[in-house]
Write a structure and sequence with these properties.
The protein has 10 helices and 15 strands. With 368 residues, the protein is an alpha+beta fold. The protein has 3 domains: 6-159, no CATH class; 185-284, no CATH class; 290-353, no CATH class.
Length: 368
Amino acid sequence: MSGKQIKLFLADGTPGGVTTAEITNWTGHVLSARRSDLADLLKRDEAQRAGAYLLLGDDEAAIENTRCYIGEADVVAERLRYQQRDKEFWDRVVVITSKDANLTKAHGRNLEPKLISLAALAGRVTVENSTAPGVPALPEADASDMDYFVSQLQIVLPVLGVNAIRVPTPSVPNKAADTTGSPIFHLRQVRLGVDARAQQIDGEFTMLAGSTVVPSWHGVGKADSTKKAYDTYRAQHQQLIDTGAIAVVDGNGRLTRNVVFSSPSTAGAVALGRSYNGRREWGSAERPSSSTFARRSRALSSHFTSRRRAPKHVAAQRGVGSVPRRPSADTGMHRACRCVQITDLDLREHPSQQLKSGVVWCQSCWCG
């Protein structure tokens, strides 16, 4: 995607106050303000136009602690005066109009259901709209313009800290040699039936739809601080179930959509039902997890220093009485091999094993 120039203007000169946002060569205009600054917002020309609006408020029981109501109006200012009396939960408002006043009532009605649908799909906020109106028909050219209008909103709103309609979409590299895309990370725990996949998408750690996770969170903490953290993880896991992001079927949990997490550790904790060091444990095809490295390293170290008789099937195939041994640089003797799966990357990451370059090891058991 090509770069975007976004212009922000702090109307009152303070962060978090009345703020305008525009994208160069885009007809849209976004106005954001705190509820305490609503009087100043209503005085502005943009609020006298047709458009859509988002009301946002904090709520610990909501998805990502945010509740959101989406609406539209022929004159946004008049509708916001009504919402100030009618709805108590919100403390921030975002007004969406156009620079040239070409966004009409029909466009607003087309925009509202699309924003509600995107908010539900993104799963980053609890949507307060009890119903989602149908998308009214527009002329083909206008419908195309509105699709582009929404795509630009998905870029500019996150810049203002509003992620309500930010839907993560994995980017597929155009060329096999392209290394800018994130690899797919894996987390597997056979005993718990966990097989999760994740990817870094738009700078956010995202667990991918179809991942299998624990059906309930079972971690138990001892210290007060640990109990508090575990309660947070448990609530987040339950919230994903309540919202349908995790579907529990036959005792197994499965993600029905991509879910964004604040960190790899949080994603791992929700997947496994216990605390988890995600920055060490998530692995990929390019780089296995550190626990995998440690497990392989311990096995590699032990089987190169032990002595044992070869299994009968190995002895029969090789015609020898012991497991083939690695040749020593000085004596030509061999060290025992326990047929542990090791990759080329492990050899590079574990030079302490002193594997000699130029020696071709068996890809199946490294016995040489």
